[in-house]
Every structure is written in C-alpha cells, then in structure tokens.
Amino acid sequence: MSTRPQTEIQNWSHPAPSLNTSPTDDKVNYDDLFDEYAADYNKNPSHQPFAIAHPSTPQHRRVPSFPANQSQTSLSHKPLWDYPPSSSESAAEKEPSRPFWQKILPDSLYCRLYVLTVIIQTAVDLSIEGELLVRFHQAGLGLGDDTAAAATRKMNVYLGIFVLAHVFQMVMALDAVYNRNTLQVFCLTAFNLSFMIYSIIQIGEIRELGGGLSQQTGFSDIPINVLTAIIPCVIAAAELAYIGLGWKIYTEFGWQVYKFLGADRQIKKMYAHFQVFECLIKFDVFFWVAFCVQLIWLVLQKQDWEYYVTVAALPLSIIVLVEGNLAAKHENKWMMCTFISGCFGALVYFGYKLVKIINLRSSEFSLTWKSLTIFSVLSIVMLLITIIFAGILIHNFNRGLKTQLAKKSKLKTAGLTRRGTEYLHRGPMRTHPNRMSID
C-alpha cells in the first residue's frame, strides 16, 4: 500500500474516464509515479501540490462567506451596502491642495471672460480715479479759500466712494460666478449702469474746478478733460460686454441650478427668494457704508453727538446684515426676527436723516445734500425690499430648502470637490472600480 499522505491524493485531479473505455483496458498505476512523490511529505521540500507563492507573501486564506441574500461586487470583493466607501478610506488619497486663485476661478469660458472684463474695467477706472485724487489733493493744498477747499474735499470723498464702488463690484462679480447667482450678475449689470450715469455727472462737477486742476500734474500729463471722458467710455464698453456675457452665464447657470436643485419648482422658487435676499443684503452694505462715509467726513463734526452715533452705527449695521445672512442659511426664525428689528431701526435712522437733509439743504448740507439725498433714498428703498423678502424667507422655512442647500457639504463628504462652477469627482478609483452612474 502506498505511503503517500491522503491530502496529496485529494488535491490531485484527473479527467473523467472515457465512456468507451472497457474495464479490461490498462490504467495508470499510481505506484509507478516518480520516487520523489513516494517520499514522505515533510521530508520532500520540492513536493508542491499547490502553486505556492514567494515565502514572504502571506499564505492563502479562505475568503469570508456572505449570506445568500447579500450581493457582492465582482472585483472589489466588498458588499454593496459598503459602497460608496466612507470618507476615512478616501482620506488617505487626497488631491494635493490647489492655489487660492484656482479655487475661485470659474471653469466656464463665459465666466472667465466676465471676470476678466470686470478686472480690466476696475484697473482702468481705478488708475484714472487715482490720478484725479492726486490732482485734487494738490489743488486743495494750494487753495486758501475755505469754500474752494471744502469743494475739493467733497470731490475727494466722491472719488473715494467711486473707487469703493469699483472694488465692491469686482468682489461681487467673483462671488456671483462662484456661487452661481444669476440674479446677482444682472444686478451688477444695473449697478454698472449707475456707474456710467454717475461718471457722466462727475464730468461737469470736476470741470467746475478745472482751473485749479489744469495747473496740477499727477502721474501723467494727460489733460483733465480727456481723463474724465475716458471713464464713461470704458464703463459703456464694459456694460455691453456684461449684457452679452450675462445672457450666456444665465443659460449656463440655469443648467447648473437644475442639477443642484432638481426639477421641483417649489424648491427653485424658494431658492430664487433666497438669492434675492442675499443680493439685497450685499447691496445694503455698500449703500449704508457710502452714506455713513459721506456723513462722517463731509458734514458731521467731532463735537457733534451724531458723529459718534454714526461711527458706532456703521459696524453695528454690518453685524446686523451678517446676522440676516446667517439666519437665512440656517433657517433660524429668532435670528431673522432680530434682523428685521434692526432693519426697522435703520429705517427710522435713514428717514430721520433724510428729513434733516431736506430741511437744512441751504445751510449745513449745502454742498452735500444732493448726493446724501440720493443715497438715503436708495438705502430706504433697499431696506423696505429687504424686510419684505425677510418675511418671505420666514414663510419658506422648514419646507425643504435647507436640505437642498446642505447638499454641497454632503457632496464634499462623499468625495466630490468644487472647482469653480462644477463638481468634480476626486475620490480614489480603487475603492469603487467599474461603477457608473448617470448625472
């Protein structure tokens, strides 16, 4: 009897015998195998019934069994309930961090052209406004008359507000393309149109002091009439570009918003109200700051109690607006009610200042009553619209919009990262191979 171990005999496999083979045919005798296989298993190192891998590799182990009612992927050997992988598995393979400008720069061609147009307009207009500010400063130092010096100081403040408006426009443009806020793009187009109207009015105001400015030289020798004429031309050319690019961005953002919110018209309507409210808050910041800056630097004196009230109200008003934005995002009714109370307080303040400006337009506000009246009226109108939309948002609370807005953070947790105006999948493919889906 053969001394070979039973494990060896079990591991050998032979083809089934042919049906045509008779019992009397010769068969292979297992005893006639090579002598090395007849030796003891432990004493023969070359005896390898299985294809054993390199000794350093782990030995073969049985794959754990799964219930019959549980499916298993063919390649990853992972159950379907464990797909997609958790964030801890993909944390080891994170994409290298990109520069800040690549994170905010949009991927769309039209969005990039829009941002580029805003940057070029801002650079050209700020260069000209800086030249005018230098010349006004030099002209004011050489004037002895108090009225002429006050007029020069007024123009310095107006030009400073114009510069602030351009910086505000550039920041708002970047925010609009990053957050896919189509309404904000259209509002910036109207805001730029007001720039053009103000720049045309500014030409006459600057030329009233043309005698003093023509004798001053700044960074260039360009005449003052040419500088003041370039600004509305640049703004008009940019306005045409904003209108054309705004329509392309509208069609592109419409598809992005549809992918983000779905086809629910009620959710899309509530999201539109949310975007209007955010846009109103941002423009409220500009008009409030512009009004307070003019009031502090041109009218109020340090010995006046209103001076300190206005200085304290400026940062407080910004805090109130930030609170309103947070209340809308988190759907907090108490915060929104506090925000509405602050808006009513600001409404009373602007109404009081408007009445005072109109009554004292021939004495205390003789040089500034026109611009202060415009900014106070615009601030009151913006406040009324903001209060109305705040009430609409309170009505929309707890109706599903907050869940849709939280989708961005959920997508990031699942391995999706934001690049400009699109979501790109950055998770490692080895954790979920050969998985396909339809966007």
Automatic annotation (TrEMBL):
GO terms under cellular component: Golgi apparatus
Membrane-traversing stretches: 157-178, 185-204, 224-245, 279-299, 305-322, 334-352, 372-394
Keyword Transmembrane helix: yes
Keyword Membrane: yes
Stretches the record annotates as Disordered: 1-94
Bias kind Polar residues: ranges: 1-23, 67-76
Keywords (A to Z) from UniProt: Membrane, Transmembrane, Transmembrane helix
Signal peptide: none
Protein name: Uncharacterized protein
Lineage, top ranks: Eukaryota, Fungi, Dikarya, Basidiomycota, Agaricomycotina
